[in-house]
Amino acid sequence: MSEATGDILNSFPAIQIARSFHLYDVRGVVPQDINPNTAEIIGAAFVDEIVAADTASQEQAVVIGRDMRDTGEELASAFAKGVRARGIPVIDIGLCSTDELYFASGYFGAYGAMFTASHNPAKYNGIKFCRPGAKPIGADTGLFAIRDQAISLVRAHFNAGSLLADMRHENVLDRYANHLRNQVDLGGINPLKVVVDAGNGMGGLTVPAVFDGLPIELVAMNFQLDGSFPVHEANPLEPSNTADLQQRVVAERADLGLAFDGDADRCFVIDERGERVNPSALIALIGSRLAVREPDAVILHNVITSRFVPIFLATQGIKTVKTRVGHSFIKKEMEEHRAVFAGEHSGHFYFRDFFGADSGLLAALWVIAILGSSQQTLSQLSSEYDPYFGSGEVNISVDLAKSARAIDQVKNALADKWGGETLDEETIDGCTISHWDTEPQWWVNIRPSNTESLLRVNVEAQSPDVLHQVLEQVTKAIVPRERG
């Protein structure tokens, strides 16, 4: 090991920075991984590697927002100090949802930094970055360059010094709300009763502003901003976190329910019976409506989306493209394919006319517009787009160093059970093993988490019995041998 390498590895801030950078965002525990010191350094490194290097940008500025986490204000302020010390002005929009930050990036033509850890517990925080127009920054588009420059600054004993640029404060909530409403034709829709669980996250701020003036009777749950998440985790992907909302929708005899994650960029939908609507059904439902606006429309979906989505959209003459999970990857693919819409089974929905960014509230408005213009209930509408049976995401704790071996164990177990010659394998994102062209129809995707020591497993099948058999084979292949 060289002396220089040793210096870096022995520098605790450098280690903190290195372990908090992931494939498409910065995320870690405060203050062990992320703290004001590292945030300030990352702010300067962001300017060095991204802002200053972009000669195409005429009026450079960085817009900064934060969610309701207790640590957000201090971290955002420190990051802004690092940016301003490099001579770049800051536009502080304060408390906001992640999609509101993306709107501000597009509106001001500014670089963006959103302080959030999304659905992670209260002890976490992080940063999502974008270029002007909400263009994503991920591992292969500059994020790791920011990391490396930040580590270099640590080694050089970084000191921000004088603040060479100003910071101004802007409230963009009303402009953001108007922009979302203008994206969807909500004229003449039937009045709807909607229960919304904001999970004590940023939906508590943005939902009332966006719903203002619409024919909606809003029943609010957990709208108080509270980064300690006193009621439940702000992670609607986990069914237990929507249980109260499901019961409330039935009790209120509401038309639908909406659940948002902490930074309100994801949305899950509950029908009038109190049942969770499959996000894949929403991709097909919203995507088909968006695609009729123009010929040769392209829609993206991630690898764990239901097989029904590409099958159905193909019958409508709509081209689909499969992509890997992660907002930075999907936004890049949207631009390359000029896609009008993209959806992830995790509840992220991306819109070309919203700067190619994801917005949980814009997806919710589309559901409201479709339901409000229909004579059917939401359960009737969504059932047409949900003919198969899915496991949802099953997370299995695994040492990520052993994840490749675990996936090989699954492949061998499934080949033994179903016949290896009948299986197809795909490696766009993790490993997808498919038996879809032969009865009984099923597929399974297994991929290591980008942020946790987990294997994420998703299974879809033609029947509940087949689903159970496949999931049982997968879990038996992973769990006993990993414990041994």
UniProtKB/TrEMBL annotation:
Residues 394-476 form the Alpha-D-phosphohexomutase C-terminal domain. One of its GO terms (biological process) is carbohydrate metabolic process. Residues 19-141, 174-274, 279-387 form the Alpha-D-phosphohexomutase alpha/beta/alpha domain. It comes from the Bacteria. One of its GO terms (molecular function) is intramolecular phosphotransferase activity. Its cofactor is Mg(2+). Keywords: Isomerase, Magnesium, Metal-binding, Phosphoprotein. Pfam families: PGM_PMM_I (PF02878), PGM_PMM_II (PF02879), PGM_PMM_III (PF02880), PGM_PMM_IV (PF00408). Belongs to the phosphohexose mutase family. PANTHER family: PHOSPHOMANNOMUTASE. This is Phosphomannomutase/phosphoglucomutase. It comes from Scrofimicrobium canadense. The lineage of its organism: Bacteria, Bacillati, Actinomycetota, Actinomycetes, Actinomycetales. The gene is manB.
